[in-house]
Predict the structure.
Amino acid sequence: MQTIRRAWARGALVFAGLCIAGSAIAQGAYPDQPVKLVVPFPPAGGTDVLSRLIANEVAAKEKITFVVENKPGAGGNIGLDAVAKARKDGYTLGTGQTANLAINPTLYTKMPFDASRDFAPVVLLASQPVLLVVRAESPFKTIADLAAQSKERQLTMASAGTGTVGHISGEMFAKRAGVRMMHVPYKGAGPATTDLLGGVTDFYFATPPTVLSLVKAGKLRALAVTSAKRLDLLPDVPTVAESGYPGFVAEDWKAVVAPAGTPPAAIARINQLMNAALTRPEVIGRLHDEGSVPRGGTPGDLGRFMKSEQERWGVAVRESGATLD
């Protein structure tokens, strides 16, 4: 009986603490201490750069302190698992993206978290397409050229790694276009690009920051972009949809999430601040320069978007046959 009383007392204290925290947030005191933003990838990568850009912009305008913490590993699963298991008080957030929130749940045979249940959506930050590129000396001038050649011989497709957005985008395209190809995964975008330039592989689905400078320098040729609209930085490059495959869209997006159960008032506050940051010219300019577009929207918008993306990419992963342990 005494054990039951002690357990009840502990539960009552926890409940009271949550009520006090929720009340403080509702009264506008949140955030009154630094907010940790977990980036599940190494420093200087695309997710890290965007996370710091938005965090710094909010901090500069609102006098809120963000502490960006990099927790890389397992395709982003380690960092997001730490977010899923963090206190649900609004002081730990994470930046997820297409790979760890939409691709990994199907790609990995075992996941440390449930991407559809363990996170509260906060805000969709930005998205960027993938570019289908070949070396400048390649005989392929269009997607049609590439598809036609694959009927004569099996082509080779480079990727920055198994399960990356570029890899699964390429698999989606190959299935849709009937392209015979062999996937050649590399340990990162650098070596994948080097071998494409050297003629080791035939084509590569790459994110814009990886190859834009090489395309503009005439060392690589972009055959198509996977977004619904053409990329402003490469207005002469058609979309995959325009090239004969209507409805084809594949984008690498990034979003802020919190542990499931985080007070809605805290989520609403962060959503408001980050949406405001995404409208500022300096942020829009930085995103434009790397081939990204700001997104924004409500937590509900992000929740619906994540669900649809998990379903869409899940189908693509299963059809590709790719798995990771």
